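Example 3.2
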Amino acid sequence: MTTTTDTAPAPGPRALTWARRRKAAGRFWRQYRAHRAGVAGLAVLALIALTALAAPLLVGADSQSVTTAPGSALESPSAEFPLGTDQFGRSLLALLVWGTRVSLTVGLLAAFLSVAIGTLVGITAGHFEGWYGNVVMRITDWFLVMPTLVLAIALATVLSRSLWTTVLAIGVTTWPTTARLVRAQTLSVESRPYIERSKALGGGHGHIMSRHVLPNVMPLVLAQTTLVISTAILTEATLAFLGLGDPTIVSWGGLLQDAREAGAVSSGNWWYLAPPGLAIAVVALAFTLCGRTIESVLNPKLGVSR
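Structure, written as tokens:
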């Protein structure tokens, strides 16, 4: 009499890969939540993101209308208008909530464009170290020494005023730092023995860059993205404050521009200036805290304080 024992089939390579990824994600989250500053920044960003998503339900699109403004011009904070009104009688609280959508959208899209350009330039410049790498890095150095804000202002001035112009102006002027960092990491990865083995086995340039280099630089790219977002939000606010943003949309920088035009500084209407300015500072700080925490988790040698 023979007995047979049922054995579970061994997991395939794809299942093992996803199991390792889930384990790595769980380890990352455990290390991340050990940093109080990073958790606080993440909580603030989650609250602001929920506010942006729920803005149409909280205040409604008609809160931007000048013709149906519910109050009189420049009313001080009250029970009806907790943050006062602007020069047209619109609720500043409603405008602040609605402006969250625009400021976050511009920050995220501009950061994505900037990091995408920087990652592409950094990986290719590190992989092709000949004349191509030298030319690309000299162009990158030129962008680095030029003031980013001046380039963004020049580009925003030439193009038509729109949300996409602001995104483009920020994205194409803030990528050099990412390119430098990614190139340095690419050179480090390319010097490892398994890259030589991959080349010996017939791996082409695209295979090496996409399957070996890119996964190894992605942690650095992720950390850099969170830092670039805060820079993009500050730059968008600056462009809007200088009158180079889209005048038809409400953003935090646009509110500061309106306050300046209304003479809020000389008139002492602090409620017109303080809320959008504080919102910009809080969001930029929250993204910076998250970025520094991610850097500390991915590279413990940085020694970022908890």
